[in-house]
Amino acid sequence: MFLENIGGLAIAMLGSGLAVGLSCVGSAKGTGIAGEAGTGLLSEDPSKSGKVMVLQLLPGTQGLYGLVVWFFALIQMGMMDGTAANLTLVEGFRYFAACMPMAFGGLLSAIAQGRVAAGSINILAKKPDDWSKGLILCGIVEFYAILSLLASMLMLLWI
To answer: Taking the complete model, does pTM exceed 0.85, yes or no?
Structure first.
């Protein structure tokens, strides 16, 4: 069988790669959405660059969370001590499954957070004193990215 030939390590590496890859794709998309909104405001009022940068940065955290899951998965798999080659197919699928909450949670929450950040930049443009309300809205989306991180980390610990 094909899966038996490639072994558990390949499946586990695919899962950890998706955790970081999809989270980074989501972060790139989310920060891009917020950045597009930010450039419009900054062309009119460059003094708001610090607040715009904070709002644009928020969707980028999911990429970092994905990187943490990837690194932790590599450690748990035994990539650092050379025991990863002994992973069974079942173990490989366990690692794969453990990385999926961060992969999909990171992808989707970063894009959603980018949209909320873009809306928050619009708040900053129209009511500068209320920009913290938009920051709170971004934080609500961030909560679900953190839950994805927590789910993947706990699953990796329990393999």
So the answer is: yes
